[in-house]
Write a structure and sequence with these properties.
Shape: elongated
Number of helices: 14
Strand order of the largest sheet: 1-2-3-4-6-9
Strand content: 5-15%
Number of strands: 9
Distance between the termini: 49 Å
Helix content: 40-55%
């Protein structure tokens, strides 16, 4: 089996046609670090080359699926990174190249000729929802949560999958509010294929995976290609390009810089509490003034 630092992948012992890709940083709620996107792609490529594998289940160790990017490190840090540039003016193409690479790595789950199933318990939020929505199918626990809270400030989902999975009306609702929805709602809205009690999640996911695994690989690849082509014709790649550019802007415009400065001075938890509380987020000149005040307090 291949060896990774943030995840594992291996055939299910009782169902060798099913590979189980386990996001495995439970101490950080499987948060995405710099290695995670690369390792997801490498794990998918391993499964692609294994003729015994017909379907891939993506799941998370510990309390949840994935809590998104490891933003305690990113938001609170003063280090200059491609996507967190402290220099002025920031370089949007450096930011775009880094985030587009992550998006392409997550999209390996979508491009893979073998079906992929996200098995979600706990939370699949922010960047974690990107991973889940790049999978072909989603099975959720009733009480699991999925959403992209950073649309309120400091983020735009680069995979742009919400509209393609939900349609414009529901996608706008979630993007405008940053709200999360539970598994039951996700199934009602057509985002999840199934929502079941948490105690039944593994059995329901495996039942679906094994039903798929009995189909020849070539047939699965053809059917997936046909559906994916519809999404490409609708403009998926162009939409992802725009979303990735906007994600960089959202982290470096006055509102995004205010959020980062607030996290650096008061901690990421406090910044998230403000973001998700519904309090108005400082914008424009107000945000610039707050940034100057926070920088002056250093």
């Amino acid at each position: 089996m291949p060896s990774f630092s943030t995840l594992t992948i291996e055939p299910d012992p009782a169902a060798p046609r099913v590979a189980r890709l386990l996001l495995n940083r439970p101490e950080r709620l499987n948060a995405i670090n710099d290695q995670t996107p690369r390792e997801i792609r490498a794990a998918v490529e391993w499964a692609e080359k294994n003729d015994d594998i017909h379907v891939i289940i993506v799941e998370g160790a510990g309390k949840g699926f994935c809590g998104g990017y490891d933003l305690v490190g990113y938001a609170e840090s003063t280090a200059d990174r491609p996507c967190q540039q402290e220099s002025f003016p920031w370089d949007p193409l450096v930011d775009y190249a880094a985030m587009k690479r992550n998006t392409e790595d997550f999209m390996s789950l979508w491009r893979c000729p073998k079906p992929t199933i996200a098995r979600i318990h706990g939370h699949a939020v922010a960047g974690g929802s990107d991973i889940a929505l790049c999978c072909d199918l989603i099975v959720m626990a009733d009480d699991a949560r999925i959403g992209y809270m950073p649309t309120r400030v400091w983020g735009c989902p680069t995979t742009a999958m919400w509209t393609f999975r939900l349609g414009p009306t529901r996608a706008k609702q979630l993007m405008f509010t940053g709200d999360v929805i539970d598994g039951r709602t996700a199934a009602d809205w057509g985002l999840a294929n199934l929502a079941v009690p948490a105690s039944e999640l593994d059995a329901a996911t495996m039942k679906l995976a094994q039903r798929i695994a009995g189909v020849p690989r070539s047939h699965l690849a053809m059917h997936k290609m046909v559906v994916n082509q519809v999404m490409l014709t609708m403009g998926l790649e162009q939409t992802q390009m725009l979303a990735t550019v906007f994600d960089g802007i959202s982290r470096h415009n006055p509102e995004g810089l205010w959020f980062r400065r607030y996290a650096q001075h008061h901690g990421f938890k406090a910044a998230v509490e403000w973001r998700d509380s519904g309090r108005p987020i400082p914008e424009g000149d107000e945000a610039r003034a707050e940034i100057r005040r926070l920088d002056g307090a250093s």
